[in-house]
Each structure stands twice: as C-alpha cells, then as structure tokens.
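Subject: Omega-hydroxypalmitate O-feruloyl transferase

B.,
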Amino acid sequence: MEDISNGSNNEMITITKGEPTRVHPNEPVEKKGLYYLSNLDQNIAATIPTVYFFKSEGKGNEEAVEMVKNGLSKILVYYYPLAGKLMISSEGKLIVDCNGDDGAVFVEAEANCGVEEMADLTKVDHVVLGQLVYHIPDARNLLEIPLLMVQVTKFKCGGFAIGMSMNHCMLDGIAAMEFVNGWGEVTRALPLNLTPFLDRTILKPRNPPLIEFPHHEFDEIEDISIKTSLRQHEQIIHKSFTFDAPKLAKLKETAMEDRVLSKCTTFETLSGFIWKARCQALNLLPQQKTKLLFAINGRQKFIPPLPKGYAGNGIVITNSIVEAGELVEKPLSFAVGLIQGAIELVDDRYMRSAIDYFEVTRARPSLAATVLLTTWSRLPLYTVDFGWGEPICSGPVALPENPVLILFPHHKDHKSINLVLGLPVSAMKMFEELIMEI
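Prediction pasted inline below.
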C-alpha cells in the first residue's frame, strides 16, 4: 500500500497494489532463443513509464483488469520479444532471451479516489503519478527490470488507469503506440489492424563499417558552469507547462520576424525556445558549450524505407552544439536555424553511418551539458481503446533523467503541446517567467 499526497489539493491518495504476476503469450511462439536488437536500439535503453486514464462509460471497471490482462496475453503472441529477458550478448550488446519463462509483469491496484482527481498530467505531482506504474524494488540495473510491466489501477468512480513501463530499446514511440493500439484491438476481440515486423537484422551494420559523418551526439562536453553554480546543491523539481495555439503562433512569429528564416515548423520553433530558455534559466557561463539532442523518425528516410509496422527503434539521434552565450544573446531564429540544420543532416547515409559508428566505438550519446528533447506531440496517444472508449488523458509519468524533456499533446486541447522538465528550484522560477513573457 502506498499513501501519497496529491500536490493539487494535499489530500492523501492511497493506492493499494496486489502481488505482481507474469503474463505470457496465450499461444505457442515458434521463434524462441536470442532476439537481435539493432544498434539504434542500443543507444536508448531506458525505462519509459506512461499512463492511460479511462472513464467508466457506464460499464464500471470490474471487468477491466481481466480484459486488459487477457488482451495482453493475446498481443504478446505478436510481440513475443516483450515477454523476454534483456541480456548482454557475447559481443557486449543488448539482446533479448526469448526463452518463454519470463513474461510481462502484471499488477492489479486500487485507488481511494476518482479518476478525475489524477487524470491531468500537467497538474498532478509526478510522485503521485509514479504510483500508477509498477516498479521493481531494489533493481540494480536495467537487466533486472522486465522489458514490459503493466499496472491496472481501479478508481472508486468506476474508471481505471493503465500504467505501462517499457524499455525504450524494444520500441520507439511510433512502434509503442502501434503495440498499445493493437493491444486494445485484441482486447475488444477485433483482428489486429497492423501486424508487427519483428526482424531488426535489416538494420545490421555494414561490413566493413563505414563512418561517413562526424557524430557529435556522442561528444562528451565539460560542464564548466556547474562548478561555479550554487544551483548544483538545489533540489531538482519537475513541472509541466502548456503551450496553447496562441503561444505557439507567437513563437513562430518571433522566430520569423528578422526574416533570417524562410519557414519553420512548430517543433523547430518550440524546441529552439525551450533550449534557449533553459540555458537562460540555468544562467550558464557564456563560454559553456551546450548540446541539444533530439530524435528524427528515420522510417521513410532509409533506402529502402523500413517496412510498415517495424517493431523496433526506427529513430536516429541528431544534434546541435553551440556556446550558451551565443544561443542566449542571438534571436530565436538562430536557435531554430541550428535545429533545422541538424534535421537536414539526417538521411539514409547519415543514419547508416550512426549505426556503423556504434559498431566501431560502442559509444553512447553523452548527456553532460546536454538537453535531450523527446517529442510525443504527434503520437496517437488518444486513439487507444480497450472497450471503454478513448482515454480521457494519457502521456508520460516521469522523466528518465534530468536532462530529458518531453513534449506531449494536451489531453483536452490537442492543438496545445505540454512540456515536462526538471530544473533546480531557482532555475525553474526563471524558466516560468520566460514562458510568461511569450
């Protein structure tokens, strides 16, 4: 049992969790043994917790637990590697042992409140939200954490939440949503709309490897600012912010006003603003180098394109590096231009060069003096249906690490974009002020 205070009203929310069980595919799976993970999977091995809230829709939640659990056993027939165990191969890479003995973890829980009290990811404390996702106590590393963990929490009102924790090395955002939507389909006894393509060997490195580009995403940047900052001893707090349509339009207008750019997207503009504002809020030294990392969907950029339903990571990390003083002092168009340049880099040759770079170096992107921006704003987080209609709210529960920022769609106004990030207390105050100035 967990007793936690809801930050919005200070009332104690009690979440009582049952004992975890294991869910296996409900039909025999032919392909067992070791399952290959590509080099694009290796770089993002982190556990990502998400939650989906559903209203009762007049049918309550008594059947929800068993239906979701049975649906999970059905969808795992198609996505059987998620029921496997993460291991290190003889080559020193992550690989999945699909021995049939492990399975996904499943937990039933009950909350002493209504679903509406928690179904706003921009207002509810992340410690409270974290109790909607099951965690392995005392896990020492990722190898001790199951690849997929599911918790179904029933609320007093008849609604329920599905909290899911999945290792990012298994599926990127696009593939994860295809999995969850497919899970909903089989739960409702519908045929699977999209069969996953599981063969990741199509992204094997070339032989011999060919590194054609510098890959600065792996560069280790010295954080000289933290040595002089009093903030290194401050508490890190997490907050969510909403950028509505007028704010997004204003940012675009600001980015275009000096006529340096001929065009810019919402993502480019918002990312440039966030990167710049975060540097200002942290009061980084002018000569401090700062790196922005973000993912590009490479599915259609590969030659040939990845097959429809590719169930793995079809994204590649691109980057931009600049001194903080230059980023802060120059207009927003400068930051947006850097991001556009990083996006233009990404084509088939660049992505295969990144795959080969890892093969040769085994390097992973460094997060020192770095902002890792993850965007879920275009993911279909509101198309999931387990028989209770679409979720009333869905999105991330927590951040994997402090340099990570997540953009995701607002649960009521899908034209708005939410941002969740962590900063020291004083820096968060400055960041809020910069947003208010838009």
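The longest helix spans residues 266-282.

T.
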